[in-house]
Specification:
This protein is of the alpha/beta class. 28% of the residues lie in helices and 26% in strands. It contains 12 helices and 25 strands. The chain has a 9-stranded mixed sheet with strand order 2-1-10-9-11-12-13-14-15, with helices on both faces. Strand 13 and strand 14 form a beta hairpin. The longest helix is centred in the N-terminal third of the chain and has 15 residues. The radius of gyration is 23 Å and the shape is globular. The model has no long low-confidence stretch (mean pLDDT 91).
Length: 486
């Protein structure tokens, strides 16, 4: 099966169906195929191409063109700093950069041939066609965030993309009738693979908001949208909008009428789950994935939406929890590191055989670095990253996530993050970073500690509380805990 079957036949009945919409720019499947083929003809035979991944229809055309031509695409975050961008370009060695004619490109890309992408397909060669590459051929090289060194390029084969999207079709009953709404960046797995290639593989539609807003969500879901993808920051803003006494009935009805509300890229705090459910009667479901593994788990459309969990392993994905020495966890209710195996995995890190070998076990399990517990029915509860969210204090293993959720239940807390810091007595002590609901009158630190102790247990209480105006976040809304220092 081709990776994007709906684009193979421009004469098919679905050819006139809207494929993508960005503000006033709308492309049918026939128009997208023609525009992509015009660009694909220009890059055929290239080794790799970079894509200046702005939230525009031109980015979709560029990526689809690369997929049609069988040329690996390297999506570039337009907000990346000059030094990091130079590293990515040197490491991936693209022969050209695809961009919109209106884009102003930074000096780090000056040495690359520039190919301007348009949404006009009139320049496509008559009868243009491209053979479908092998399932193992690389489709995308997506660079990781680089939290532990320079970003690494994860090579994602066509096989992994197809396997993940088909597993989500099974889990979410995703069809060509679905219209996906989102405002996610297009240089990352969430926005590009799930948010664009997902609808295109199903023969459905995607409406990209360009910039996230509650008004945009209400407008698009209220006019035919069936699914919403977002990150916790976006759902937090929706929860805030719903809590406003002047909230429009349109937003409530739009969210209530959506077939699926899906959150990913980080844990959605339980209190935001509950606020959205109380206002709309609709629960957000979560899924869990990584750049290197694409999608691993997800709450099914016909399953139980359970706040604090990311569902069970998707079809074709094996998942296990292991001890620090790599042996399988004897008690799945205790905390262990997630390892996964299946057709959804990447091929490896570009130019980094050492990093690839370190990430994979001898029998093919990927070491995620994420810590979790398993519910009796197989639902996964992620407690955080091994490096930043697993706190070893007084002989206990403590997950930062449950303390964060407890803090968010306090009326005086708007946002919260929890880290561990060295302690001569406990090994590590629990440290809370809090954005108060009322900056002029933050709750006493002792009251917050007592609140956590009462909800969870005394050894999980924060020993130190720092108050901030805002938590540091990246483009996907993830809290950058490495930026938090006492």
């Amino acid at each position: 099966m081709p990776l994007l079957p709906a684009l193979q036949d421009a004469t098919a009945p679905a050819a006139a169906r809207e494929a993508v919409r960005f503000d006033e720019v709308s492309l049918s499947y026939a128009q997208l195929a023609a525009a992509a083929d015009a660009t694909a003809a220009r890059i055929a035979g290239a080794g790799r191409v970079a894509v200046w991944a702005t939230p525009t229809a031109q980015t979709v055309v560029a990526v689809v063109a690369a997929l049609r031509a069988g040329v690996p695409a390297v999506p570039l975050n337009p907000k990346t700093g000059e030094r990091e961008l130079a590293h990515i370009v040197a490491d991936s060695a693209p022969t050209a950069v695809l961009a919109s004619a209106s884009d102003v490109l930074p000096p780090a890309l000056a040495a690359l041939e520039r190919l301007d992408v348009t949404t006009d397909g009139t320049a496509a060669p008559a009868g243009a066609g491209f053979p479908e590459p092998s399932p193992e051929s690389p489709a995308l090289v997506v660079y990781t965030s680089g939290t532990t060194g320079p970003p690494k390029g994860a090579v994602l084969p066509r096989r992994a993309i197809a396997a993940s999207l088909d597993a989500l079709e099974d889990a979410w009953q995703w069809t060509g009738d679905d219209v996906l709404v989102h405002a996610l960046p297009l240089f990352h797995v969430h926005g590009l693979i799930l948010g664009v290639l997902g609808p295109l593989r199903r023969g459905g539609s995607v409406r990209h908001l360009g910039r996230f807003s509650a008004e945009g969500v209400a407008r698009e879901l209220g006019s035919g949208g069936t699914m919403l993808f977002g990150v916790p920051t976006m759902y937090h803003r929706l929860a805030e909008a719903l809590a406003d006494p002047s909230a429009s009935d349109g937003l409530v009805k739009a969210l209530a009428g959506a077939r699926l509300l899906v959150s990913g890229s980080a844990a959605l705090p339980v209190h935001d789950h509950e606020r959205i459910a109380a206002a709309t009667g609709r629960r957000v479901i979560e899924r869990y994935g990584m750049t290197e593994t694409l999608m691993n788990t997800g709450v099914r459309a016909d399953g139980e939406p359970r706040p604090g969990t990311v569902g069970a392993p998707l079809r074709g994905v094996e998942l296990r929890l292991v001890e620090e020495d790599g042996t399988p966890l004897a008690d799945p209710a205790s905390i262990g590191e997630i390892q996964v195996r299946g057709p959804n995995l990447f091929t490896g890190y570009l130019n980094r055989p050492d990093a690839t070998a370190a990430a994979l076990t001898a029998d093919g399990w990927f070491r995620t670095g994420d810590m979790a517990t398993l519910d009796p029915d197989g639902y996964v509860r992620i407690v955080g990253r091994k490096a930043t969210d697993l706190i070893k204090s007084g002989g206990y293993k403590i997950g930062a996530g449950e303390i964060e959720n407890a803090l968010l239940d306090h009326p005086g807390v708007r946002e919260a993050a929890v880290t561990g810091e060295p302690d001569p007595d406990l090994g590590e002590r629990v440290v809370a970073w809090v954005v108060p609901a009322d900056p002029a009158s933050p709750p006493p630190a002792a009251a917050l500690a007592d609140h956590v102790a009462a909800q969870l247990s005394p050894h999980k209480r924060p020993r130190t509380v720092h108050f901030l105006d805002a938590l540091p976040r990246n483009d996907l809304g993830k809290i950058m805990k490495r930026s938090l220092h006492g």
